[in-house]
Design goal:
Elements lengths: L1 H33 L9 H9 L13 H15 L11 H8 L3 H13 L3 E4 L5 E4 L5 H12 L5 H22 L2 H19 L3 H18 L3 H21 L7 H13 L3 H29 L1
Antiparallel strand pairs: 1-2
Helix pairs in contact: 3-5, 4-5, 6-10, 7-9, 7-10, 7-12, 8-9, 8-11, 9-10, 10-12, 11-12
Amino acid sequence: MTTLRTTRRAATGASVDQHDAGDAAPLAKRTAAKRPAAKRAAPASTAVEQAATPSEAFSPISTRRISEEINAQIRQQIASGALRPGSRLPTERELAEQFAVSRMAVREGMRTLESAGLITMKKGRHGGAFVSESSAKLVTQQIRDMLELGRATLPMLMEARLMVMDVVVRLACERATAADFRAMEANLEKTVALTEAGRLVDRTFTAIEFNKILADCTRNDIIGALVEGLSEVLRHFIVLAGPQPFSSVVDTRQKLIEQMRARDADGAALTMRHALEDISTYLIKQSRSAIVRK
């Protein structure tokens, strides 16, 4: 009897389980139908692209100012050679008509070009805007600013000049032509005449111009701009210090020209070094004396 009841319970349980299982299947389907579908994961490539493109990678596009466009077009004409050094640009009115803009916009563009040293503004009947012969104006202004703002000193200026002129003399010994030597000798003759006339300040400035002639011998416009910039700034200190009363500039120049004609680069560089060191010592001494007097 016990066995029979147990068997009946097992059979009953089995039937109940089968019934429950049968009811559970439709229930599972209904539950799955009601459950919202899970969101699909973004593809890996999309996630990488989103991470690699920050939201602030781009900025709004703005149009160029009219004066900047004028500046750019004139620069392009200078760079292409259409406007050569010394060339006179059209008048302000003519430029305004060509660009179809106001004269004020032209004026602003020209001021920017003048500040960059690309053009020179001349007054008078035959004045106007001319393409600059030299590109050293910006270099000169940068050096002046460094000195005035206390970021550089006179000894730094003289040291830089000493190093640059050493390279200049060596290159000039290799590259100077007969025309270059004629220009050096003409400058020397002028220096002698000014010395004999007692015009010592003018003599000093003429002697400085000799360095520009040497720089032209290098056939390197960047070196030329550096030499001209350093020389222009040096003029200010020479005016403050006054010329050396007993300068050997004439003898030094004669010796230097002879060494360069002989292509003696080491000898010429040494002669230039001694001359520049002498000038440096004098200018620094005079500058310190002026500070003490104040």
